[in-house]
Every structure is written in C-alpha cells, then in structure tokens.
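Hello, quick one for you while I still have it in my head. Could you read through the record and tell me how the tokens relate to the sequence? No rush at all, and the record is pasted right below.
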Amino acid sequence: MLSSLALLSLFSFSSAQAGSIELWSMDDFGDDGYLVGNKDGWKGGYSRDQWYVGDNIVYTLTDDNVQGSDFEVYGGNTAADNWVVRGEAYAQGKVEAKLFNDDDDAMGVVSHFSAADRFYIAVITRNSAPPPADTAGSSSLIVIKVDEDGGAELINTPARINGNGEFSLTLEVNDGVVIASVDGKEVAKATDPNPLPAGLVGFYSYDTGGTGGGGGDGTLAGATAITASLSDDDDDGVADDADNCETVKNADQADKDKDGIGDACDEPVDTGTPDDTGTTDDTGTPTDDTGTTGDDTGTTGDDSGGLVRPDQVVLRPGCACSSAEAPSAWWGLVLGALALLRRRAR
C-alpha cells in the first residue's frame, strides 16, 4: 500500500482538471452484502448500521437518531456516528457524492476523518439533523465540524434539491475555507480558523434509512458514487498538500536555497540598486561642497590670490606692500621728464 505522500507524488503526473487532481473514485460497489468490513477497506462508526450494497447502490439501513441523554459526544458509537470512510487522507481537497434521499432526514458526506471525534459533516435534510443542528425547518444544507469541543455548525442555509431523484453534494476544504455545493453550484462557504488535519472521506447518514434488514425496497436514502480530489490551486499538476508554491505554477518544484519554499514563491533578493547606490545628491558631484564651483573653491573670487603676474607688482613710495594696481597717470609724466633730462645731458 502506497503512503499518502507517495500517492501525492504519483498524482503530480496524472491528468488534472483546473484546480483539482482526482485521488480516487468509486461508482461500482460490487455484489450484495454489507459495505463495512467487507468491501475496499470501508469502515464505519455506528455498529448497528454497517450499510449495505444492493443493485450497486449503497444504502443506509437504520432510521436511528439520538435523543437527549442518548448523546454525549461524537465517537461514542451512537446514531450521530453513522459514517463510513475509506481511501487516502488529504488536508486540502474535496469529496463529491451522488446521493438520493426520499426521506426527510439527513444524508450526506464526511471528510477529514482522522479519528472518531475529528471530521466534517455535510448533509441535506428537510427535518432531522445531527447535533448540534438537531432540526431543520425546510430543505437545508448543513455543515458541522466535529472536534474535541464537540460539534459546531459552520453552515446552515436553505438548499434546493431534487427531492425524488439523484443529486450531487460536494464538501471542499482548502486553506481553512469550507465550501459546500449542490449539483456543482456553490451554495455557501465558511472560514475555519483551525481546520482539521488530513483525513479520510466517505458517506454520512442520520435518521435516514429504511426498515432495516437487507436494504432494497425498504431503503429511502443512499449513494451511487463518490470521488475524492486533491486541491491544485495553481493547476501545475502538483497537489497543494505537496506543493512548495501553491499559487504559482512550478511543476519542477525547484527550491535552490532548500528553505521549503519553491523558487517561484521565494522573496526576491535585495540587489542594492535603489536610493543608497551613490547616484543621488549625496554623491559629491552636483552641490556647492564639491570643490569645483562656488566662492570657496580657490579658483575664482577675491580670495583667489594667484591670478596676478609678477611684472604687475609695483612698489609705491613709502609703502613696502605689493599691489596689483596699474601705475597712475601723474607718475607716468614724472618718469617721462626724467628720461628727457638724461638725453640732454649727453
């Protein structure tokens, strides 16, 4: 027998419908006889009702319910535990069953069964319902979560079905969202902040059945087919339960850094290319402190001190300082007169 994980790997290569991968299905229940303990690994929770196969249809036999003190908790082998399950466990997926119900009480499916007091129930009823719902005033779809705290209603809403014919009922649980559908159309959904762990799926009945014995004409409710499917949100052929990146297609499941998150879903690496790259105002190229422009550069302005040639330096009488100023006009006349007197003296 293959493990659940091995099966998930195998189904990665199976044909997949958008958003789901078929895990197993059954529409042939074999010859007449009891279902529980005899056919394909089915097991049940209510010893008085082992369900029965007749004309390739699965029947519930009892019409039992729990009254007051008869019921304390799920898992106590009471009529509230009238489930039958088989197959491989999954955490994210759905179960769809083809049912008929000529009674006015509850017929449906069970999923995520991991223990006698750990499972979801989805039923259609027009009267009696399992605890804590108990009764329904009209045709209703009810979803119940069973755990260590007992039973809790997640969904209780009107639902129209073919009262004297076959209908399909689907219960899907995916990332804490519980969705119930009838004949392929979503009727209601709820959020479970603490979804149940992986478990099996199967049929469920409460206060719905025949007159006992071997089924046949005295049976009022039953099933003709069941299919269990795994969720595959990104439709990459890898079931969500085994997918390291559920929302982005990555059939190769590549995980270069081995952190359990596929490369397609890993956070991008910080490349250091935004504003801290040295290309903005703190780079030292465009502002006044660069040493190439402005009064403090030593290349322009009154404090430059290096632009006068040596032949421009003139000593003034009575002044030991240098000046870059040109000689005045009267000083030029004095020099000219001295030159003239020298020529006459010769």
Observations:
- The domain at 4-232 is CATH 2.60.120.560 (Jelly Rolls).
- Helices lie at 4-11, 329-345.
- The longest strand covers residues 221-232.
- Confidence is low (pLDDT under 50) at residues 1-17, 212-216, 280-310, 312-328.
